[in-house]
């Protein structure tokens, strides 16, 4: 068990509240991973003051110099990859092969940032007037509030921290209370890599106190949030009142379509990974499986057989396929949706209960679950469950499958399995999602590409790739007139 402290102005400090909270292993609730300060508004104010003070000097450092720090961060993360991954498995529960991937995503994001700092382009454009030059550049905004979720404790914080800092901003990050240790370790790596005091500050605590404090503080210029749509709407509402920049990455109800001409074995491994990877606790998880009628019964039989062979257990065991849910309350929420599905008339064919055999009795495990004969308007087909529950829906044909796919308030990720090139391209056109996969599952983002969705999945911004830097910077248009005379743009008559 480790005692963690807030990181404020480069120093590790206890909360002025004197309060703490424990972070426990969801696979073995007897294990305390760490003890963290339960911070208050005074701690947050100190962090914001430190970030505000550090901002002028940090923004004046050239992009390429800041990118060198990102390179150093990547190298240090690579050295500590296994240590970071094991901490993440202990505090979040997902299997070690997934947490290694989570850490690698952070390493790749740092490497991408180290390159982006030497090539982040503006535009040079021709002027409509002679002896005049026009160009654009991107400038930082100031102090940001970063609020991250528990399901990707390294990857998502790096998606926010690295472009935010590389762009010249300073920041306060509030990690999720279910997985604070990973951010604590990551922040130390950034500090050791050369990020100056005050540029990145970590304040642990609840959303009601620290999150709301960020939203309402006049020195916070923007909020970057990943989490539920309900909380995202609240953040958007508060930020809108003061015109804070606001980036929201929210929920999903992602569908995988399997057409009758698909490679069924390929589609099967896709849905197993998409639905039960991370125990279904991904915003991109495959929550709906939409099968064309001619292969519906065959594919369900294949799927049930493979799902029942998945091994549950502690994620540090290399042989385990599915880890626990992150908390008791999350397991209760998932089971609540299973009961809803039964009452709605969907047919439960496997799973649907807590898994408490052997050592799993110490954690929050839930059997991988399949409902069939699900109607598109059922709650289990419309609402984000965030657990290992798959709703299977029958489609008459390609058109019906796409209508079902698009028939939710969310629009994050979609997938279609087909060997028909025409239908694959039609699916790309018709899918109302920010991410489309052809013959691949709904999960698996790459750090150099935009990530985000449509409808109630977000507010139009995209994390990842070059688009992340658009969130954390302002466009500045520059005109340089070297004619030596007053030239009037957009005047119809010429002297």
Features:
22 strands, 495 residues, 2 domains, five-stranded parallel β-sheet, globular, single chain, seven-stranded mixed β-sheet, 22% strand, Aldehyde Dehydrogenase, Chain A, domain 1, alpha/beta, Aldehyde Dehydrogenase, Chain A, domain 2
Please give a structural write-up:
This protein has helices spanning 41-60, 63-79, 81-92, 96-116, 155-166, 180-193, 207-216, 229-242, 264-276, 296-307, 328-344, 398-405, 421-430, 467-471, and strands at 2-3, 6-8, 11-13, 20-25, 28-37, 124-126, 132-140, 143-147, 170-174, 200-202, 220-226, 245-249, 254-258, 286-292, 347-350, 369-372, 389-395, 410-411, 413-417, 435-438, 454-455, 473-481. The chain is an alpha/beta fold and 495 residues long. It folds into 2 domains: 2-250 and 458-478, Aldehyde Dehydrogenase, Chain A, domain 1 (3-Layer(aba) Sandwich), CATH 3.40.605.10; 254-438, 3-Layer(aba) Sandwich (Aldehyde Dehydrogenase, Chain A, domain 2), CATH 3.40.309.10. The strands form 6 sheets. It has a 7-stranded mixed beta sheet with strand order 15-16-17-14-13-19-20, sandwiched between helices. Helix 2 packs antiparallel against helix 4, helix 2 (63-79) packs across helix 6 (180-193) and helix 3 packs across helix 4 (96-116). The protein is globular and about 80 Å long. The model has no long low-confidence stretch (mean pLDDT 97).
């Amino acid at each position: 068990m480790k005692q963690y402290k807030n990181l404020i102005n480069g120093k590790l400090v206890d909360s002025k509240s004197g309060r703490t909270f424990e972070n426990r292993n969801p696979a073995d609730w007897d294990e305390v991973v760490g003890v963290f300060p339960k911070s208050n508004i005074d701690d947050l104010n100190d962090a914001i003051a430190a970030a505000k003070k550090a901002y002028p000097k940090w923004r004046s450092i050239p992009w390429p110099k800041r990118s060198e720090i990102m390179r150093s961060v990547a190298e240090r993360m690579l050295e500590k990859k296994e240590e970071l991954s094991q901490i993440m498995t202990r505090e979040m529960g997902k299997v070690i092969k997934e947490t290694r991937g989570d850490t690698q995503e952070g390493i790749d994001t740092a490497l991408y940032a180290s390159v982006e700092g030497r090539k982040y382009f503006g535009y040079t454009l021709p002027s409509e007037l002679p002896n005049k030059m026009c160009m654009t550049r991107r400038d930082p905004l100031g102090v940001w509030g970063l609020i991250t979720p528990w399901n990707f404790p390294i990857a998502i914080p790096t998606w926010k921290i690295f472009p935010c800092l590389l762009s010249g901003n300073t920041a306060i990050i509030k990690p999720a209370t279910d997985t604070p240790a990973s951010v604590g370790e990551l922040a130390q790596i950034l500090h050791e890599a050369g990020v100056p005091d005050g540029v990145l500050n970590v304040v642990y605590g609840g959303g009601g106190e620290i999150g709301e404090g960020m939203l309402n503080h006049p020195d916070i210029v923007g909020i970057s949030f990943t989490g539920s749509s309900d909380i995202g709407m609240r953040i958007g509402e508060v930020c809108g009142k003061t015109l804070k920049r606001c980036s929201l990455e929210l929920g999903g109800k992602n569908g995988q379509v399997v057409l009758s001409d698909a490679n069924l074995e390929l589609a099967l491994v896709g849905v197993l990974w998409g639905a039960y990877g991370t125990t279904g606790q991904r915003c991109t998880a495959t929550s709906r499986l939409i099968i064309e009628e001619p292969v519906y019964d065959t594919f369900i039989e294949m799927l049930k057989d493979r799902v029942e062979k998945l091994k549950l257990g502690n994620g540090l065991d290399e042989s385990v396929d599915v880890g626990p849910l992150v908390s008791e309350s999350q397991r209760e929420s998932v089971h609540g949706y299973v009961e809803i599905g039964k009452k709605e008339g969907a047919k439960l064919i496997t799973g649907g209960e807590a898994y408490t055999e052997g050592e799993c009795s110490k954690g929050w495990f839930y059997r991988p679950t399949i409902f069939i004969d699900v109607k598109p308007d059922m709650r289990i087909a419309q609402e984000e469950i965030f657990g290992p529950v798959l709703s299977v829906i029958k489609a008459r044909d390609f058109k019906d499958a796409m209508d079902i796919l698009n028939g939710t308030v969310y629009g994050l990720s979609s997938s279609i399995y087909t060997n028909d090139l025409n239908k694959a391209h039609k699916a790309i056109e018709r899918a109302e999602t920010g991410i489309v996969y052809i013959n691949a599952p709904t999960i698996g983002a790459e750090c150099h590409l935009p990530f985000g969705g449509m409808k109630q999945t977000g507010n139009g911004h995209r994390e990842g790739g070059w688009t992340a830097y658009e969130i954390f910077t302002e466009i500045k248009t520059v005109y340089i007139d070297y004619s030596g005379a007053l030239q009037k743009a957009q005047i119809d008559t010429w002297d």
